[in-house]
Amino acid sequence: MNASTGAERGTTERVLTLLGLLQQRHTWSGPELADRLGVTARTVRRDVERLRSLGYPVHAGQGVGGGYRLGPGRDLPPLLLDDEEAIATAVSLLAGAAAGPGDAALRALTKLDRVLPTRLRHEVRALSGSVEFFGRGRTPVDPEVLTALAGACRDEVEAGFDYPSGGEVRRRRVEPYRLVASDRRWYLLAYDLDRADWRSFRVDRMTDVSARTWRFRPREAPDAATYVQEGVAGRVYPHQARFLVHAPADTVRAQVPASAAVVRPRGDDRCEVLSGAAGLDALILHVLLLGHDFEPLDPPELAGRCRALAERLLKAGATPAPDGEDRTGPRGTG
């Protein structure tokens, strides 16, 4: 993608976000819009003119209570994007939404569905349906790679890419199913044709990505977000464990990153936590530090490791301090 094409896409995405903001609230001041978009007030004025040139009734008021607003009583005209621009814009908005606080980007994406011509609207809906989320993604990836993978998911065609495995880079042939954004990275859930099984792949590790021409019949697939999250939080580690935590699921989810553990509700005041690590002791300590009562569920040896750690901590607490040292630490003099 050359610099001019990238600038055009950036402008298109920003103008689309501006349109979403104007539809969200009755009136915006110029400085408010500039702050939301991360641009100058002069750029806001130029983007408003771009919307007006496309037929959007953007009015500007002066003085106290003035600002920009969309005029009522008119159907908004279609946004003038060709197929490639619409798909690139949708993918870029999805990437932006998953990269951090993306409410404006997600609202702008929903506006695409309203303002595009019917033919392009179907394309973008199909594309958006190929992407799922858990948490918020942060590692940046090439939008063209996301475009190629999302298009392959949508069109049900095989994809190929180079991917590191076992210390070497190998070519992988897959039937792509869904793109999934976690709190840190983008993943592709796909059926690996050479290994005859479902696999998840980190998009930022892929190189030489291409959509192939061979179509495939979709298989019965696992839930994409759940499969990827369980893999990220547990299956990639040598040890996995399940705990019953005596706290609401929402409370525990707020304490644990989505990529570190899977949290499932077990009633209103308890939840199940699934996680993985290099050793069971580390998993026990992580759950202990959440500050809630808990019970070990799996594997069977987990309860024994809890008892061993408890005994070690009790022993450490009962050991006399050397040379009469005060274990309570320094005290104030006041």
From TrEMBL:
Keywords: DNA-binding, Transcription, Transcription regulation. Residues 11-66 form the HTH deoR-type domain. It holds the Pfam family WYL. Residues 324-334 have a biased composition (Basic and acidic residues). Transmembrane segments: none annotated. Residues 315-334 are annotated as: Disordered. It comes from the Bacteria. InterPro entries: CBASS_pafABC_assoc_protein, DeoR_HTH, HTH_11, PafC-like, Tscrpt_reg_HTH_DeoR_CS, WCX_dom, WH-like_DNA-bd_sf, WH_DNA-bd_sf. This is YafY family protein. The lineage of its organism: Bacteria, Bacillati, Actinomycetota, Actinomycetes, Kitasatosporales.
